[in-house]
Design goal:
This protein is mostly helical. It is built from five helices and two strands. It has two domains: 30 residues; 104 residues, Cytochrome C3, CATH 3.90.10.10. The protein has a two-stranded antiparallel ribbon.
């Protein structure tokens, strides 16, 4: 009886090891562990593409950047249709921007700059406040770049 139980347990484990990954592979999401290259949507960009250190940001909630993510479906690119997919803002005949608020946030450059630089500036403010108050044991968080050439190196 003990041999039958052992054989059944072994067979069950083999099934789980062989069949289990095939089932769970469909449910897993591939998260880029290193750096991601963020390319401008225009054919003739004013500045170079940005190398984004994705892994450095793992301490933040995914939804902080991927604000429309439903926690189930694979995360799509920020330039996906309907998200931050505008390469240019609409302008009138005199070159003045005529975009409404919705178009301004869909403009990829505004979305990245307000989200990324805004977050980095907020962290700097928190650090300065903690330093000014001389809080014992205050954690000074590393901040990211807030200037153009820090993200867009000269080519």
């Amino acid at each position: 009886m003990q041999k039958i139980t052992l054989a059944l347990a072994t067979g069950l484990m083999v099934l789980i090891l062989v069949w289990g990954p095939a089932v769970s592979a469909e449910e897993e999401m591939c998260v880029p562990m290193g750096e991601i290259t963020l390319s401008p949507l225009t054919d003739e960009p004013e500045r170079s593409e940005v190398t984004f250190p994705h892994a450095v940001h793992f301490s933040y909630s995914c939804q902080q950047c991927h604000h429309k993510w439903d926690l189930e479906t694979p995360i799509t690119s920020c330039g996906t249709s309907g998200c931050h997919d505008l390469a240019e803002l609409p302008k009138d005949d005199h070159g003045r921007v005529t975009a409404d608020a919705g178009q301004k946030i869909r403009y990829y450059k505004n979305a990245f700059h307000s989200s990324c630089i805004g977050c980095h500036k907020d962290i700097k403010k928190e650090n300065l406040k903690a330093e000014a108050m001389q809080l014992a044991g205050a954690v000074i968080k590393p901040t990211g770049p807030t200037g153009c050439i820090q993200c867009h190196p000269a080519e």
